[in-house]
Design a protein that fits this description.
By secondary structure, the protein is of the alpha+beta class. It is 36% helix and 27% strand. It has helices spanning 3-16, 50-54, 57-67; strands at residues 20-25, 41-48, 75-82.
């Protein structure tokens, strides 16, 4: 797995005591889109975290985005699923 994706995984596990974090890189599916940039990722992240699950969806997404704020310079699109 890419070191950037491993960094994201570690940050999420540490911040939310996540029992599982799965990162799916969908970047290649977006080639040819109008604003596609090869150096930016399109990610789907599936997180299993009791803490995040206890929050409403908007607050949980805000918490994740806050933890990953430094990484967003390399992320074009982020899809979150919280279990």
């Amino acid at each position: 797995m890419n070191t950037f994706l491993l960094l994201i995984k570690k940050k999420l596990i540490d911040a939310f005591e996540a029992s599982k974090v799965e990162i799916i890189d969908n970047t290649s599916k977006h080639k040819g889109h109008k604003f596609f940039q090869e150096e930016k990722f399109h990610l789907k992240i599936i997180i299993e975290s009791k803490y995040l699950k206890s929050l409403n969806r908007i607050d949980a997404h805000r918490k994740v985005k806050q933890i990953l704020k430094e990484e967003f310079n390399k992320i074009h699109a982020l899809e979150l699923k919280i279990n």
